[in-house]
Amino acid sequence: xxxxxxxxxxxxxxxxxxxTAESCTAGLMAALVAGISGSGEVLDRGYIVYSPExxxxxxxxxxxxxxxxxxxxxxxxxxxxxGALESSGADIxxxxxxxxxxxxxxxxxxxxxxxxxIADHRGVVSETVHFSGERNEVRVAAxxxxxxxxxxxxxxxxxx
Length: 160
What we know:
Layout: H1 4-13, E1 18-22, H2 28-34, E2 43-48, H3 52-59, H4 63-69, H5 74-87, E3 92-99, E4 109-118, E5 121-130, H6 135-159
Parallel strand pairs: 1-2, 1-3
Antiparallel strand pairs: 3-4, 4-5
Helix pairs in contact: 2-6
Protein name: CinA family protein
InterPro entries: CinA-like_C, CinA_C
Pfam families: CinA
């Protein structure tokens, strides 16, 4: 996929309802989808869960997962995606957590997860990606990355 318009068309083609669970991007993924005409057919909802308490309270991320792996880990992103899948009417969820600005090795490191529950295809996949740039450049790049990866995540989940 090359554009958000193509992602919306993909979701329409496969009759998928999307939810997002966003930490670092704070709603940018949902906003990008909502900016496309016809997105009401495919966008279910977006969760903005910046704090540990929000991740736990809204999406059921376990405190133990945060303690063991850190707030910005694939494990947390996976629990965010699964929690959003459980609490929404969506078929597929994109989640992210990470640090857009830091003075250490985690600067620009984001963790993504995609969870799906369609017929006999249920599961979650995740990845960690490093982005370069200023804080908001990283956030925008991360939102685009996750959305443009959606068809790839979908295929990975369908293959099991």
